[in-house]
């Protein structure tokens, strides 16, 4: 069986491709390399250098390689920056998803796992988010991810599309040294690069209504996340029932300051982070229950925060600038 992975040359996408391959599934990667890396795609995996906005190219790849399912990860993923770039975010995430669904319809592919986000919840007024928590996104990024879920829902009503959406927030760590997070906006690479350059890491806002004043999130290891995508894809391919939405949550939030402490432990570098202003679009706390995903997708947190930080640090050191 062959799975097409959009964004498969990116940090998360390359881990998903690796996990799919380990599970015995063939992959085709479609990525325009706007943030991904060609060297992240394993040898032997078909790579199509194209934007997902080009539905004809995506459909051609599906037909040529007899694709039976899609894992849709491609998109613009930066909540804070999306506030300054709303039109770009909507183009990549909404128009891009429409194009992928059009390509699937044209080529007869009817299974899709969608990479959504906990950003669809905005700042929830509950301590622990579940799949029934009302959605109220506070950034264009969160809005586009919710619209993506709606697109899948409506396509399913119209054509019988089989789908599920996985909502998660901060994905960190590395499963293997050659795959690592190169984002200029994500917390782990920002902190690691600062330390490598002799700068002091920065916390964006320490006046949130949380225990230590810094944002609290689910931090999940990328390998655990990739495994959940594989199980979801295999269930769809087997015709097994899935829920339309799953939270891949830890059930136990970690603050940015606690992450800084873990970085100090992993690196042996003692530092006191600088405190900066809040970033637009950042909610104070999002922590989700992963019980539903545990029931259906075997979801579990196999890595501790220290594991996550240590693997990220080691992977970055394997690639000196």
TrEMBL record:
Transmembrane segment boundaries: none
Keyword presence, NAD: yes
Enzyme class label: isomerase
Gene Ontology terms for molecular function: UDP-glucose 4-epimerase activity
Pathway membership: Carbohydrate metabolism; galactose metabolism
Domain NAD-dependent epimerase/dehydratase: 3-249
Keywords: Carbohydrate metabolism, Isomerase, NAD
InterPro entries: Epimerase_deHydtase, NAD(P)-bd_dom_sf, UDP_G4E
Necessary cofactors: NAD(+)
A biological-process GO annotation: galactose catabolic process via UDP-galactose, Leloir pathway
EC number(s) per entry: 5.1.3.2
Keyword NAD part of the UniProt annotation: yes
Gene3D superfamilies linked: NAD(P)-binding Rossmann-like Domain (3.40.50.720), UDP-galactose 4-epimerase, domain 1 (3.90.25.10)
Pfam family, one: Epimerase
Reaction equation(s) it catalyzes: UDP-alpha-D-glucose = UDP-alpha-D-galactose
NCBIfam families registered for this protein in UniProt: galE (TIGR01179)
Family note: Belongs to the NAD(P)-dependent epimerase/dehydratase family.
Protein name per Swiss-Prot or TrEMBL: UDP-glucose 4-epimerase
Origin species: Aeromicrobium fastidiosum
Lineage per the UniProt record: Bacteria, Bacillati, Actinomycetota, Actinomycetes, Propionibacteriales
């Amino acid at each position: 069986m062959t799975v097409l992975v959009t964004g498969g040359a990116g940090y998360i996408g390359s881990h998903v491709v690796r996990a799919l391959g380990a599970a015995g599934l063939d992959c085709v990667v479609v990525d325009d390399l706007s943030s991904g890396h060609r060297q992240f795609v394993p040898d032997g995996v078909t790579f199509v250098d194209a934007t997902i906005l080009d539905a004809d190219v995506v459909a051609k790849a599906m037909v040529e390689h007899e694709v039976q399912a899609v894992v849709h990860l491609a998109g613009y993923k930066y909540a804070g920056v999306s506030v300054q770039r709303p039109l770009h975010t909507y183009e990549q995430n909404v128009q891009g998803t429409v194009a992928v669904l059009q390509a699937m319809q044209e080529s007869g592919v009817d299974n899709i796992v969608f990479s959504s986000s906990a950003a669809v919840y905005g700042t929830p007024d509950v301590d622990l988010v579940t799949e029934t928590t009302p959605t109220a996104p506070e950034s264009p990024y969160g809005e586009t991810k919710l619209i993506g879920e709606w697109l899948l829902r409506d396509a399913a009503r119209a054509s019988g599309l089989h789908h599920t959406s996985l909502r998660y927030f901060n994905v960190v760590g590395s499963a293997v040294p050659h795959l690592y997070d190169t984002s200029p906006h994500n917390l782990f690479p920002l902190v690691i690069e600062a330390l490598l350059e002799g700068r002091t890491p920065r916390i964006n806002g320490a006046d949130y209504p949380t225990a230590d004043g810094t944002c609290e999130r689910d931090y999940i290891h990328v390998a655990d996340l990739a495994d959940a995508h594989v199980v979801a894809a295999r269930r769809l391919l087997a015709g097994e029932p899935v829920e339309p939405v799953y939270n891949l949550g830890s059930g136990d939030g970690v603050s940015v300051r606690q992450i800084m402490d873990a970085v100090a432990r992993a690196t042996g570098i003692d530092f006191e982070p600088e405190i900066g202003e809040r970033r637009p679009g950042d909610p104070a706390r999002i922590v989700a229950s992963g019980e539903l995903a545990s029931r259906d997708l075997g979801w579990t947190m196999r890595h501790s925060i220290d594991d996550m930080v240590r693997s990220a640090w080691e992977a970055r050191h394997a690639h000196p600038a």
